[in-house]
Specification:
It is a single chain. By secondary structure, this protein is of the alpha/beta class. The protein is globular, with a radius of gyration of 24 Å. One of its GO terms (molecular function) is potassium ion binding.
Length: 527
Amino acid sequence: MHATHLLLEEPIRMASILEPSKPNFFPAMTKIVGTLGPKSRSVEVISSCLKAGMSVARFDFSWGDTDYHQETLENLRAAVKSTKKLCAVMLDTVGPELQVVNKSEKSISLEADAFVTLTPDQDQEATSKLLPINFRGLPKSVKPGATIFIGQYLFTGSETTSVWLEVADIKGDDVVCIIKNSATLAGSLFTLHVSQIRIELPTLTEADKQVISTWGVRNNIDFLSLSYIRHAEDVRHAREYLSKLGDLNQTQIFAKIENIEGLNHFDEILEEADGIILSRGNLGIDLPPEKVFLFQKAALYKCNMAGKPAVVTRVVDSMTDNLRPTRAEATDVANAVLDGSDAILLGAETLRGLYPVETISTVGRICAEAEKVFNQDLYFKKTVKYVGEPMTHLESIASSAVRAAIKVKASIIIVFTSSGRAARLIAKYRPTMPVLSVVIPRLKTNQLKWSFSGAFEARQSLIVRGLFPMLADPRHPAESTSSTNESVLKVALDHGKVSGLVKSHDRVVVCQKVGDASVVKIIELED
């Protein structure tokens, strides 16, 4: 496998494992995406989430209306202001998601070997014998013997809160199923997943477009998480739609790979998307259990080599109700980091979990420990070999900056950038030290008014492993004279000192443009 053997070559002293970890200003280089919801939408809780290490807030429109999410977002803004910690906003679309509708919200008990009917008549009340669903085309999509899975909110795999069905018969618009395990469904919303079946619904639905064109435009979303991606055309269609919505032409599109169809077209989807989310809940149902790890390693390797952020989901499900993860979950988080993940996405754990702040903190600590034993040397050589020769000008500068920083044991890499591309390329080589991305705003106009770009680019680096943004003074362009660059560098270094990233006599690698030339320089800090 491409992504194996990423541990340090020298053996670890067993006694050192018991030594307490040193606290850092940044909890981990790996980023954490937190889903905000009922248990994590107050200013106080969001502030604690930001301090614990959350750098991207996800808004899941599978439930809740725009007013509810707007109120949460206003609280996020207040929390960002009070904590002085940047946070990006991700809008997660519903897409062609099939749902069981339980308007009464009463618990539904399903007994193994009994029959239950799935009907598109949503006016019916959900019972142990009849489950209304939001899709009329199910009888045409399935055949007797097909497997259907129903779970609450997100698939947990827990047999007490989710149920496996086998299609027994099709009667007109209804599908009759045999219940394979006893379970109790509680709540108003259950997701329905038909294994390895194509559902004839658009990836970007009219309801999704409505949310994006209103809530998304109003709030200048940084990321659009596109659910149930099946083809590269889905990404192109979404990008074309965003291009007509003012500033949303800058919004990055993250493709959620959730089914076999998306997996089969992974390479072309990766080429079109700005990043990838491995939605392991749905994929874990479509794939045999023994193949899940294989897909994760292969997909993360491809994302790493392409220099595009990769996000892994569903890592600490048990922390929805418990203060500590299971041993398997703790190992899973570490392996996601060692496999090359840029960020960990927390769903139910922060949305409705009892311990949102503790979950973020725990995942951050596990990530930080895994990063210490990540074999950067092997990864660097592998990436350089994959890129090949001749390298592009920017790729050569980025890899040289990382190599220099490691050789001189620099505390930090500072990169001046306008678009964020140079910073992302440096992060692609996974330096062992943080990369401070100094985003220089650019003046732009729509013929009616002047405005500065830069805020989007700064927030969008909050999902990239090892990249930490800082907005510079717009009076200092990225390709300026040495004197103005020195003043911006001083501000960046002062920020680094306050953050505890650098101290006297530390070495710092700086990557910047001077005129038409790109320069990598090493400086040593004085007292």
